[in-house]
Design goal:
With 483 residues, this protein is α+β, with helices and mostly antiparallel strands. It contains 16 helices and 14 strands. The strands form three sheets. It has a six-stranded mixed β-sheet. The protein has a four-stranded mixed β-sheet with strand order 4-3-2-5. Helix 4 crosses helix 6. It binds a DNA duplex (9 and 7 nucleotides) through helix 9, strand 11 and strand 13.
Length: 483
DNA sequence: TGGGGTTAT
DNA sequence: ATAACCC
């Protein structure tokens, strides 16, 4: 099931996947040397078990763009190339290019510290995510052309399940009856490749596809990035970061333990976050080895069976979570943080601003949100930050006016949001907020032409009306009562 | 710490 | 509605 353990299901022959008549040449690309050839070693890979197909052994790629926001900014303004560049949100440098990193700038560094370290640092404001978001989806869509199963992680990372593509290429190789399989990019640990091992061969083909993906992303979008190829998402993600800007690496199964033990602390394990790390540390667990060898029973009692089981699997490099196709977003939100907001009118202005941007976005998306949410963060001196939210359904008459552009949808929405606001914040008492956010969720596709017996009643006469993408919602002068 | 996202409970 | 996770 986990694909990490090559031995798992011994010798069944799956005719479909057997590669016959393939002349396996020497190889190595960058690093590969033919593996040791024991006289009574493994059979040639075209005779081996190929546990692919349903669930056994997968080939996963993790694609991770280099300093994504900075790259987008350099494309927007090529004069920034070659200079140390930081992208600023409020008083933070959230990311920076490699020129800036060489000079000591780090991600999420305070602007003052960054300027001190690097006085020549050029800063651009990155609080408006629009261009980043658009470029991000172009990357995902490009990857979806290779294989439809693409999962986004943030704006700059994607997982792709290559298992089916690899299977097809193996078949093709068999039909062509020849050709050496070589690796593209680095092999983790400089491990020797064994072309008689079908798992190695499949991962090498994955590395070739990964290289093609990076080439396509560069040629079509002008972006560079890293890739990691392995048998599950955890390992692919960990290995993608081994050679850092604009390179790729593949993990062969025999080096899996080395990879996970190269983590210095469990907090570096994707899936183990801030809270879990604290709880594990309280149990005396700090290294991957600590977690591997800790009593499962006690861990379950402490963290619950679900989390305990999942993270202990992770500590062995095992991760059976599927690559879930992300598809279109589940929610749209806009937020703004600030030092202080302490009056209702001030809050209303900020909420109107957030809402105006959101309405444009949701309009361009084409689907309609059925739920709206308001999120706040209250000032608190020491407490680790926590947010509060209130949500409610969007009235159906408002939903229907949502993409039409003809009616004022701001006013009823602002009214709803201010009710949510007063539900959370007692405006008769002093308050101090440091963040406001508005979120549209529960998105549903417009009813398209297909008419089930039920669909008929749900169809709105206005549902496909105009949204050119040019018009924008105004914040002042909010009554646009043109019928 | 920003300005986003996701899923699970 | 919150809490955890991810970037």
């Amino acid at each position: 099931r986990l694909g990490v353990e090559p031995q798992e299901e011994g010798g069944r022959q799956e005719e479909e996947d057997a590669v016959q008549g393939m002349n396996v040449g020497a190889t190595g690309g960058l690093l590969g040397a033919p593996g040791p050839q024991e006289p009574s070693g493994p059979p040639p890979f075209h005779e081996q078990v190929v546990p692919t197909g349903s669930s056994s052994s997968r080939v996963i790629v993790h694609v991770d763009l280099d300093c994504f926001y900075a790259q987008v900014e350099m494309i927007s303004n090529p004069e920034l190339r070659g200079k140390p560049l930081g992208v600023q949100q409020k008083y933070l440098v959230v990311t920076c290019n490699y020129e800036a990193r060489k000079l000591g700038v780090k991600k999420l560094m305070n602007v003052r510290d960054a300027k001190e370290k690097c006085p020549q640092l050029v800063l651009v404001n990155g609080e408006d995510l629009t261009r980043y978001r658009e470029m991000s989806y172009k990357v995902t869509e490009l990857l979806e052309e290779f294989s439809p199963v693409v999962e986004r992680l943030g704006f700059d990372e994607n997982f792709v399940d290559l298992s089916e593509m690899v299977k097809k290429r193996l078949k093709q190789l068999r039909n062509d009856g020849h050709s050496a399989v070589t690796v593209s990019g680095h092999v983790y640990n400089n491990q020797s490749i064994n072309l008689h091992d079908i798992l190695h061969v499949r991962l090498l083909i994955g590395s070739q596809i990964a290289a093609e993906m990076r080439e396509a992303i560069y040629n079509q979008l002008g972006l560079t990035g890293c890739a990691g190829v392995a048998s599950n998402k955890l390992l692919a993600k960990l290995v993608s970061g081994i050679f850092k800007p604009n390179q790729q690496t593949v993990l062969l199964p025999e080096s899996c333990q080395d990879l996970i033990h190269s983590l210095n602390h469990i907090k570096e394990m994707p899936g183990i976050g801030y809270k879990t790390t604290k709880r594990l540390e309280a149990l005396g667990i700090s290294s991957v080895h600590d977690l591997q060898t800790f009593s499962s029973k006690i861990l379950e009692k402490e963290l619950g069976i679900s989390v305990a089981h999942r993270i202990q699997k992770l500590s062995f490099g095992e991760d059976n979570s599927p690559v879930m196709p992300s598809g279109p977003p589940q929610s749209f939100s806009e937020e703004d943080s600030f030092k202080k907001c302490s009056s209702e009118v001030e809050a209303k202005k900020k909420i109107e601003e957030l809402l105006a941007s959101l309405l444009n976005r949701v309009c361009q998306d084409g689907r309609k949100p059925y739920t709206i949410r308001l999120i706040i963060r209250r000032y608190s001196s020491e407490k680790h930050y926590s947010r509060e939210s209130r949500q409610c359904p969007i009235p159906s008459h408002v939903i229907q006016k949502l993409g039409t552009g003809n009616y004022d949808v701001m006013t009823p929405m602002v009214d709803i949001l201010m009710k949510l606001f007063r539900n959370m914040v007692n405006v008769k008492m002093p308050f101090h907020l440091t963040l406001l956010s508005v979120c549209f969720c529960n998105l549903k596709a417009l009813n398209t032409a297909k008419k089930g017996p039920i669909d008929y009643y749900l169809t709105s006469s206005l549902s496909t009306a105009s949204c050119s993408g040019k018009r924008s919602f105004k914040m002042k002068d909010t009554h646009m009562e043109d019928y």
